[in-house]
Structures are given as structure tokens and as C-alpha cells.
Amino acid sequence: MRLHVLNAGEGDCLLLDTGMARLLIDGGPAGTWSKHAKPYLDALIGAAGTLDAVCVSHVDADHITGVLDLLAGIEADVANRRPAFSVGDLWYNSFSSTVDTDDQRIAAGLENLLDAAGQAMVAMPDASSGLFGIAEGARLRRSAVRVGVAVNAAFGGSVISPDALPDPRLRFGDATITVIGPTRADLDELRAEWLRWLEANAEAFAAPGPDALANSDRSVPNLSSVVLHVEERGRTLLLTGDARGDHIMQGLASAGLLDHSLHVNTLKVQHHGSDRNATYGFFARVTADRYVISANGRHGNPDHETLVWIVEAAEATGRPIEIVVTNEAAALDELRRSHPPDRHGYALTVPGGHGAAFEI
Amino acid sequence: MRYLVKVFTTHEAEEAAVRRAMSDGTIAEAEELAGFVQGVCDDEGLERLRDAGFGAIAVEEAAPAAGAGDADPAWLAASFATPATFSRRLADGDFGFSPMPSVTSAVGVQQYFLLRIPGGITPGRERVLADERVSITERRNDDWYVAKLPGRDTVSRLPFVAQIRLYDGSETLADPLEREIGDLKRTGATRMPGLRVFEAIVHSGVSEGEVAGQIAALGGKVLSSGDRVVRFSSDQADLGRVADIPEISELQEASAPRPLLDLCLPTIGIRREHGGAVSERDGAGELIGIADTGIDEAHPDFAGRIRHVEALGRPGDHSDPSGHGTHVAGIVLGDGAASHGAVRGVAPGAELYFQSVMDVNGRLGGLPPDVATLLRPAYDAGVRVHNDSWGAFLQARYGANSIQLDGFVHANPDFLVVVAAGNQGSCMPGANSAAGFVDMPSIADPASAKNCLSVGASRSPRAAGGYSGITWGRMWPRDFPDLPIRDQPISGDVDALAGFSSRGPGDDNRVKPDLVAPGTDIASTKSAAAPARNFWGAYPGNDHYAINGGTSMAAPLVTGAAAIVRRYYVDERAHPRPSAALLRATIVNGTARMEREDAVAPPHGEPNFHQGFGRLDLASTIPDRVDPAWRLFWVDTLVDPALDFAATGEIRRWSLRLDGDGDLRICLAWTDPPARSVQNTLIMLLDAGPLRPKIASNGDVPRTGLAFPTRVMPGVTVNRDPANNLHVIRVPDAKAGLHTLSVIAVNVPKPPQSFALVATGRIAELSLR
């Protein structure tokens, strides 16, 4: 199977092609679709090509926006009688059905906060990006309905979670996909995080001055990502979205895939290589031949620390590895200086452009 | 049984007859006014008056029985359902009502009370109240008035005051906040968790600054204060004590305004006839105001017609990455330049005054904290019709935006504001609706204002594109889970309503929305900066346009129509300063009643809480060349202030001559003083001569014959909409000949009251008597 790593700026946009079926994972932030993903896919699968499934790992704007653009583009192409992509199934967990289950309190609180900030002319880009994804989740479902795409049909219409599915494995072309996350516990933890964050912001709001509001613009790490383990003829891929390392390991353990450690051929590194979502221990236990990081330096991603963990964990067991980062970033130069590739046994690939394909 | 009655007298012969009834004792304790006599009458007397041919008798109230033992009939029981508050026996001297909750005032002002005064504030009663130094600050609803009383009890001795009670928390609060604060008080907690923003509306005549000081002293963080409203965040506020501040009239949770998002010119009566005069009217000469996200001023459809753009939300930036504002502007006045006229707005000759209010976070933080600050610069620049496709969901309460909008229009009565009703329509929870029908109320703020036109959404005729082929239940499964609406397509049936369209009534039971216009799958101009994903769908073959839906898209159809109607008065009727009331009356007069099951769902009535007075229909609003016998007559006291009402009981009469049988429509509108409920009540009566049946405005009156405006009486139906400042008479089969049209000041506690009147049909003459 091949993994196409598309240039999604600070977000994610990946295409898995098993040879028999194609899965698009996320669509990147605003701009990704028209600038990179659409031309790349046009060239690869043709303007009337088929995506057997499209998975939104979670509803953050840097993952969901391109998928909204994809569906809007299909609608426009059909309306204009132009060749259009066809999508078999949309896989996603809506925020309201998984996290914000109590009368959408989180969305309402976030709206209040942003309204207050907006009246004070204080920009809160992370919080508004968070709300965008939450609010647009509902629009995503409507967009799918509009172009006749089923939602979660592969999962019998259920929420995508190992705790909600009778069998977390499904056949996809000739590959086997196992749903690793999010678990019910992950979702409950995220819900609690959000409520704590909103309460903390209520305090910031009460403090005088716009600085407190600006300082409080800190997105809650999204723990609701769909995590998928893909296996085809002995070759393996782990797709992690923005999940947290310890949650990924718990999920792998529950699925019987993590004994002491797990080796996959390709690991899509979680949350754009942020050091908030991983530890050295994670990379020591979950190892890969190739590490794919979708980032461009925005929000400090990838973190130098994360890259060092990956390099040193591989070095410790003498494994040669390749690190793929979609775009240049300050941390890459820092890594080249602190851990020169030729002396630390790794290759660093920065494809740039629209994206690049890797055989798994 | 004795009743407090109003006997309307629209002819001299009727005045003579009613005087006879007064002198022979049929009507006792009478106060004679120009338009009616108010007095007390028993069942027998009521029969005698009916037999004498009085066409309109209003039973206001069961008068106190002369002797004991009269049992209240069941139909009156509701009026006396709360004997705890029935408190004529007030202690003499200072107010020492022990059974009443005690309320303290930090600034030592007199307290507020609610008085029930059946029969309204007549000149005689007004004199008595003034002598007793009682100042009525506001009419609350029907017979209840808010009053500041002097520090001694004189009121309970007044014969016309039926009840008195303290203005307490049950008036200040409504659920769910009332419940929450009740819980707080019970548990002894002083603070609510989380970030909450509240707005307090202060009593008329109270200083907002002083109340803001009291709220701050109780731990609230004041965000803004002015124009009757104090906004504050809960922070450490002891909300229970804030709610007890006597100067606060209403307290409610604030909800931030948002765009009400989420072509069909023939449906609203444009281009009905090729070459007809209607289609030539394009609004040229009007400057239309729009407050919305932003505007793509490079769009070819606005070329040369954008006079001014204000950037209120993002300094120096009025662009439209959302697409909402540009779409709205195109519906109002896009000229279709980029589509050879295929996608055209309603008033493509008008100019645009645009106020961009989208903030840095993509929300509407550019809206100033008070509505007047938004509307004032537009008014000063020459805008007379303003579109506001935004609102806040406040459980249908009359919020801060509404009272401030009403205040601004009251102070600037030639300024029409058109407001989207809101997109909170849903079958859930279904508290007031049958399964598969949209629940109510859900009207947004400021669409609940009295002096605006609030516009709900009906379905467009679009058969392809956008959401048109998809059903309500597929698109919004949580909101529309049951038949029949579940399986109905979102567009196609122009006589049905949009499921999301917010329903009335307002919290004082006024019918809202005022009217509807198509609001699903509307094609209009697309901002180049807005991504396709922000719309319902693409417009085939032309990226300058896109398809969208929402009451946001319905309101601008009415705004464009209002511009055309305004130009009609200015250019064709030599009326250079038409009032907002006249424009409201004209547009509502022309609406087409929709008859599909969802548009006439219970509670039944004309108007109703779903479609208001009906769907915008410009073809039957102003005359065109197609039918010269169909004429429009108008009265606008803005240019004839001698006709304004100065007191309760006054009457204005016109001779109305029809030169043929047919449809006769009359609409009365007035710009009411700012307050939650209607302050002044006018009605229209239409008759064919003295002691002939009269048709009263609103309600189901034309079908019953005997007309009266307020209370329930056996065998007669209720007026559906006593709190509305819009009244219609619609007679589909009016007979040729001379009629008398009367407008009567039934109750005008807040004079002077201006008004406007429109009559259409085969009318040869409308002349003041």
C-alpha cells in the first residue's frame, strides 16, 4: 500500500491507497484543498476519481476544513455538470455526539467567550478555530447528505470508537483496519478538559483588560481523534490524528496490538510532532521504519524535542529510520545541528510541493 | 352579572342612541368619550344594546357585583385565579404589606407596583391618578400597568383599580433564569458557575448608571450601560440580589447576536406581469443600510452603487470572508451584472450603506452594545430602510436589542428596520406543537421588537441545487424527526414555511413574525473571499453567485421591497417623508396568507405565530398598470400630526367609497413607545352606516359579525392579537358603496400616538370626515 502525504500546512491531509481502495484522512486547514490537495488528487485519480472513504480524524479546523471544501467542490461540480470525485463513505465523530453530550454546553460556553473577546476586539484564533470545527461538524454532515455520501456506513452508523463497535476491525479493500481510538475514557477526559478550560476562561474574562483574554487563547489538546491501525499483507501503518501518546498506547494494548512494544512500517506522528502529545517513552515502545509528520512550523510544530525523541529511540536500538516532514520548519534545522543525520542513522525528507507518495 | 363595557360609536346616530342608553340606566357609571362610551351594564342591558343595533361592544371585564353572591362564571375564572395577589384591602398609611416579599433599594427610590386597571387609562382616570401623584411608567400587558407610587396608599381606594401588587422577581425574571436563581437562593449559593453575560432592562425614567453602580457593588462586572440597558458578566455577582434591585424591570441572560444564516422573485410578486409597472421600480433614489459580516465591494453587481462602508468589527477591514453580508446585500440590491440579470436583487437601483460588524474572531462583535449607536450614523447618512439579518436567541424574550430598536424608531419615526426572525425553528422539544410540526415560540431578539418588520422564512420554489431536493428530516434529523415535515423537501412548495423559521409569539403574546418571505435555497451574490463550503450550494455556471438559506435571506427580500414601496410614496404619491409605520402597513397589507398545513397549524388565527400576516407579495402591495381600478389610499400622521391621538377615546373617521364589489384590505400600523408590551392600543372599525354591523381589525371578526377587541364572552371569539401595533381588516367580498372607516384610541396611556393607514381595493375615495 502507498501513503500519499499531502502538503496541508499546519494540518493533516493524507491519502492511503491499498491498491484496491482509497481512504482520505483529513483535509487540512483553509487553503489546503484548492492549493494542494485538489491538484494532487486530480493528477493521481482523475477529476472523476473515487475515494472509497474519507475520514475526519477529529473536528479541529486544520483537519476538517479541507473535507468541507471537498464536499462543497463535489456539489459545485455536480451542479455545473463537471466531472466530480465520488466519495463512498464519510467517517467522522461529531463533537455533539461524542464529547459535548450535555446540551452542547461546551459549544455554548466557547461561543460566549468568543463573543466577549470579539466585542473587546481581542483575537482568539485558537479558540475560534476550535469553535469553527465544533460548529462545522454539523455542517459537515449536511454537506455529506447534500452530495449523497453516507456517514459511518462502514461502522453501521455508530460512533467510531472501539468501545462503541461490536468489532473494531473492518475490511477495507484488501487491508484490515482496526479502530484503536478514541475510547470512551478518552472522550470523557476531553469533555472534562473543555469544561475546566471554560471555567478557567471565565476567570480570565472577569479579570480586567484584554490581555487576560488574549493569554487565555489556548486550544484544548484534542483527545478525540480517530486512531486507526492498518494492515495489508504484513505491512502496517498507524494513523493517529492528534491523539495523545498514552491514549494511543492504551488503545493499542486493549486491541491486543501492544504487548511490550509495537513496530509498524509507517507511523503518522500524532499532533504534527507536538511535544505535548508524546513522550520519549511513546517512541521507545511504538516504533516505525518511517515517521510522517505533517507540519510547517506553525504553533512551533514539530517540536525539536519530539524529533530528538524519535531519533534517539531509534538510535538506542540501532534502527535506521526515515523522518518525513511535509514542510521545512525551524525545528528541522535545529535537529540537523543537534543530531546530524549521518551521525545518528536517520534520513530526513521534506517533500514540499503538493505532497509525495511513500510505499509502505 | 354586570360587565364593564365599551360601546363604540362611529356615527352621530349611534352617539344619540348611546346617550339614551345612559339616561335610561342601561349603561351605568358611564364615561363618555368621542369614540366610545365606557360603563357598566348587565346581561339584560347588553341584550338591549345589541338589539338596538350597536355593531361593536367590547366586554372589558366583569364589573364588581353590586350585591354579594354572584358566582364568577367559568369563563372569567382565569382573571381571578390568584387570589393571593387580589389585594384591594391595603393597609392605610404607609405601605406595610406583610404578605408581600420585602424588597430593598440601595438608592432609596420609591418602589414599583403593578396595578390592574380594566378599561384603560381614560382622561378622567388620568386626572385622578395625577392628583394622587401616581406615575404610570409603562403598560405591562392588557390591563396591567407599572407604576411608581408615592409613599402612602391612595391607590387601593380608587374605584377603577382592581388589583395591586408589588413588582417583584416574578416580573423581573422568566424561566430558565427564574428557576436557576430560585435554586441559587434555596441553596444559599451566591454565584453561578461559568462565564455568563446578563442584561438588565431598567424601568422607564431610571438612571442606567445608578443601576450599574448597584450591580457592580453586588459583584457584577459591568460591560456597558445606557439606553435602558445594563450589560454585565456574572463573575462574582450575587445574582439573586441583583434580581431584587427594584429599579430593574427585567433581567435576562444575554445571548450574542449571530448571522441568521443557514431566487425567487416571482414568489414575492416581482415581475408578475411583463412590462408591468412593478418590474420597472428598482429602488433608485434609496440609500439602503445593511449591518452584516462584510461586503465584497468588488462584486460587479454592486458597481457604482456602494456609497459608504463602515468597518465596525475589524478596524480598516470590511471584507467578507464569511460570505453572509455579500449574499444579503445581493438579495436587497444586486443588479445581476455578472449574470446578465439572471440573479438579481429586489431593488437593483438602490445605493448601499454597509456596516461591517464581523469581528476578528469571525463573530458579530462589531455590533455596538446599543442599537442606536449602530443605526444613528446610517440614519444621518440618509438611510431610511435598514436590513438586520442577525439576532440573538433569548427564548423569545423582548431583549435589550428590541427595546433599543423600538426606542430608536420611536425617536426617528421615518426609519424602517427590517429584522430576520431567527433560525431557531425546530419541532423539538414540541412543548406547544403536534409531532411533525414546528414548536414555538423561538423568535430572536431584536425580531421581537414592535416597531420593526420581523421576517420569517417560507420555502422557495427552487427545484434543483442547494438543499432543494433534500428533505427536512434528512438535513436536520434532530429538529425534524417526525412526519409530515420530515419527508418534505426543503424547497419547492412556496406555500409552506421553512422548518427553521423562528416562530412567535413574543413574550407578551404579540404575533411575530410580522410576515414571511422565501428563505430556502436563495441564489445571490457570492463574496470572492468566501469559500464554497459556507453556502448551501454552488450557483451553476457562475462563481459570482451561490445558494444559501436562512431567515437572513428572507429579510433582505422585504428590505428591497420596502425600498421600492418607499420610492412609490416619494416619487409617485408626492409623499417625501413616509413613516416606518406607513411602510409597515403597506407591506403587511399586501401579504398573501399561506394555507399549507404547517403555515396554519394551531393555534389558529389570522395572523398566526407561524407566518404572521402572510408572505410578502409586492404585486398586491402597490398598484401597477395591469389593474387601474385597484387603488391604494394612505394616511400618514407623520405629515399630518393634527390626526395624532392625544387621549384615550378619541376617534378619526373616513368615508370610504368602493366603486365595485371585491377584495378590500386595510392595514393600520403605529410606532409604539419603547416597552415590552404595546403601550397604546388603537383599533379600526369598518361599517356600512349607523347601527349596522361593524368589522373590527384583527381576530376572526369578519366571520362572526359582532366585533369586540379584548375579552372572552360566550358565543364570540377572541381577538387573537390584542398586543400588536399592526392591525388589518381583510374583506374578500366587500360591496360597492359608501363605508365608514374609524380608527379609535381604545387606550392611549402614552400619548401622543401617531399612526399610518393603508387601504387597497376598488376604492374611489377615502376622505376624512
Give the topology, please:
The complex is a heterodimer of chains A (360) and B (769).
Chain A: E1 2-6, E2 14-17, E3 22-25, H1 32-45, E4 50-51, E5 53-55, H2 61-79, E6 86-87, E7 89-91, H3 95-98, H4 105-119, H5 125-146, E8 150-151, E9 169-172, E10 175-181, H6 184-206, H7 210-215, E11 227-232, E12 235-239, H8 245-254, E13 262-268, H9 280-285, E14 286-293, H10 304-316, E15 321-325, H11 330-338, H12 341-344, E16 346-349, E17 355-359
Parallel strand pairs in A: 3-5, 4-6, 5-7, 7-8, 12-13, 13-14, 14-15, 15-16
Antiparallel strand pairs in A: 1-2, 1-17, 2-3, 9-10, 10-11, 11-12
Helix pairs in contact in A: 1-2, 2-5, 4-5, 4-6
Chain B: E1 2-8, H1 12-23, E2 28-32, E3 36-42, H2 43-51, E4 57-62, H3 74-77, E5 112-116, H4 123-131, E6 135-141, E7 144-148, E8 163-166, H5 169-172, H6 177-187, E9 197-202, H7 208-217, E10 221-226, E11 229-233, H8 239-243, E12 248-253, E13 258-259, H9 277-280, E14 287-292, E15 306-311, H10 324-333, E16 351-356, H11 371-381, E17 385-388, E18 390-391, H12 400-411, E19 416-420, E20 453-458, H13 472-475, E21 515-518, E22 522-525, E23 537-538, E24 545-548, H14 551-572, H15 580-589, E25 631-636, E26 651-658, E27 662-669, E28 681-687, E29 694-696, E30 726-734, E31 737-747, E32 756-761, E33 763-768
Parallel strand pairs in B: 14-16, 14-17, 15-16, 17-19, 19-20, 20-21
Antiparallel strand pairs in B: 1-3, 1-4, 2-3, 5-7, 5-8, 6-7, 9-11, 9-12, 10-11, 13-18, 22-24, 23-24, 25-32, 26-31, 26-33, 27-30, 27-32, 28-29, 28-31
Features:
heterodimer, A: 360 residues, alpha/beta, eight-stranded mixed sheet, seven-stranded mixed sheet, 12 helices, 17 strands, 40% helix, globular, B: 769 residues, alpha+beta, seven-stranded parallel sheet, 18% helix
Biggest beta sheet summary of chain A:
8 strands, mixed
Quaternary state of this entry equals heterodimer
Helix percent of chain A reads 40-55%
Distance linking N and C termini of chain A: 6 Å
Query: Can you summarize the main beta sheet of chain B?
Result: 7 strands, parallel
